[in-house]
Amino acid sequence: MFSLLWEGHAVASCLSLAVMLLLHISDVCMSESHRAECPESCFCLESVDGGLAVRCSDMNLIAVPHGLPNNTRNLYLDNNLLLTIPSDSFIGLPLLFKLDLSHNRLVRIDPGAFRDQADSLSSLDLSFNLLETLDPEAFGDLRAQTNLSHNPWLCDCRLQLAMPQLLLDPSSLAEVVCNTSEPEELAAQGMPFILVATDLDFCATLQRTTDFAMLITMFGWFTMVISYLVYYVRHNQEDAIRHLEYLKSLPNMQGRSGEALTRSTWL
Strand, coil or helix: what is 167? Predict the structure, then answer.
């Protein structure tokens, strides 16, 4: 009886060891698989909240790496040399939750750059770049908490239209500062955009400028039309006068022709 119990315990121990060995082999295989999927310039680790944490920081990258694992959850592209974020840069990353693009040289974000991330992306860091303005179509329906601090912003109507589409990081609002403004007479330089936008309407100023430009253009066209009509009338009057003088001269010419014909007949 004792030997049977001992043999049963030994079998159970062997099965337990076998299961643990299989699990270890599975973890190793999965880890190797993730390393195989990871771009050459990045490091990929299991994220504590599931998916992968892909770190591509300090790699002198000039473009978003291709072939990012589709289970990427946290992506770090900070401290690189990125200039633009083209459309569909993060397509195929349905689990992307956090994206760090800080400390680059970004000057433009194209429309559709964050396509397909509206439902997943929760944190977006664009701080310490060279962004002056934002295309209102660049973010689509994205509602990620966004850090826009420490960029040389041009505060204008375009930026005013783009800002409400973003859920700005509250801790960074004071650092979203106008480097320049358009029009310049609004004197928004050096002021946080969140404060300026409550007092100034950049789009209304632009609308007044546009209306004035349209008025000048219409006046110019009206002047051209009037000038053409005056020229046309004067030209027609001169033609009419010349034609009238010609008609008046016709009887005299006919009379002289008749006299010449009579004289030739007598001769």
Answer: strand
- Over the stretch 1-58, which tens digit does the pLDDT of each residue have? 444 444 544 544 544 544 343 434 344 334 444 444 899 889 999 988 788 999 999 9
* Distance separating alpha carbons of residues 54 and 52, to the nearest angstrom: 6
* Nearest residue to 39 via CA among 8, 80, 87: 80
The answer to whether the CB of 35 falls within 8 A of the CB of 50 is no
Residues with Cβ within 8 Å of residue 64, at least 6 apart in sequence: 77, 82, 85, 86, 89, 90
Which tokens in the block code for residue 16?
Answer: 């337990």
Could you tell me the residue ranges of all domains in the chain? 27-200, 201-251
The CATH H-level superfamily of 27-200 is Ribonuclease Inhibitor (3.80.10.10)
Model pTM above 0.70: no
**DSSP strand E in 139-193: where?**
145-147, 153-155, 167-168, 178-181
> Does the N-terminal peptide bond of residue 183 adopt cis geometry, omega within 30 degrees of 0?
yes
